[in-house]
Amino acid sequence: MERFQKFILLPLILTASLPGLGFCYSIINGPTNATVLAGSEARFNCTVSVGWVILIWLSNGNPVLTVISSQGAVETSDRFTSQNYTSSNGFTSELIIHNTRLSDSGKIECSTQQPSESSFAFLSVQVNGSLFIKNSTLTVKENKTIEIVCEALGWAPAPDITWMTNDSFIDKSRYVTQHSQGSNGLHNALSILTLTPTDTEILTCLADIEALLNPQNATVAVIFVNSTIANDYSKDSRSTWVIVLAVVLSLVGIILLIIIVAVVVRCCCLKKKGSTYQNEIRKVSAEKKKDGDLENRQRHGSENQGYIPEELWNTEQIPRIDSLPPMSSKFTVPAADLHTSSVPKVRPQRRTDYLINPKKIRNVTLV
Predict the structure, then answer these.
(1) CA 19 to CA 88: how far, in whole Å?
(2) What value, to the nearest 5°, has the Cα angle with vertex 101 and ends 75 and 38?
(3) Segment holding 13, helix H or strand E
(4) CA-CA distance, 337 to 360, in Å (whole number)?
(5) Residue 274: in which H helix or E strand, if any?
């Protein structure tokens, strides 16, 4: 693109530089030096007298923008644009460099292609890196010396490191700063402050470069602890821990007690429920057995528990009867008595005489 731009500008340059054509103009005010942060805009102004024909802007010797009086600005890149102002005294062209980079640093030149008619300035693009202190709070006991480290990373150029305590600058003899450069061309810095505090104070590490309106800072609070206060603090801490431990153990004990009571109640309920179930089963079984016995009794009759068979009577307790004299096998019956009677036979009556020492008689009655 640069070759193409030079090819376009060459005829214009030759035309403007031809002698005898009556071109007579000069640069009234040239650009001035600028320092900006990377990513921001850089602006340069160049004012030429009336009658000018062509004005060329160059960055590190390379044409980046051309302004022709008859055509206006010829822009070849979105990063390089211009704004034009016309007055009775002359013409002013403002070069605007967008999204500046470290590579843009260098010489910015305004040229009218007239002999000895060019003016230049320098652009410095700087990078604002990071700054931090590892510890934001430090506790220091009496008569103890500490080292506080402040680190700056990714700066261009290397930052200037200073320290402050309670809004007052600390003497440079109390800290050491080391600079180094990374592979990406950016700079790092490491500053170590040695301090023996006698009171609580706020320390501030400052990193500054020209492009910054205000230095970047990082702070740390140094808390000074007296030995007596430290002992009291340790005792209070132990007491606090003892109280906390007692409360925690109490809560744990209460929770365990609740769990144990719940388990016992649960077991009792389950046991009672199981016992009730078994009793119900036994009750149902007994009722079924009772119904079965009742059915058998209805079917086979009731048993007389007081009945004793005659065969089992104790004959020894029955008074014996003297044996009768033997009967003759032959006996005579009157003929008149041998006739058949139609009178129904009469069942002999049961003896009603009761035995001596009678026994209980069990009779079975079938229904």
Answers:
(1) 26
(2) 120
(3) helix 2-17
(4) 43
(5) helix 227-300
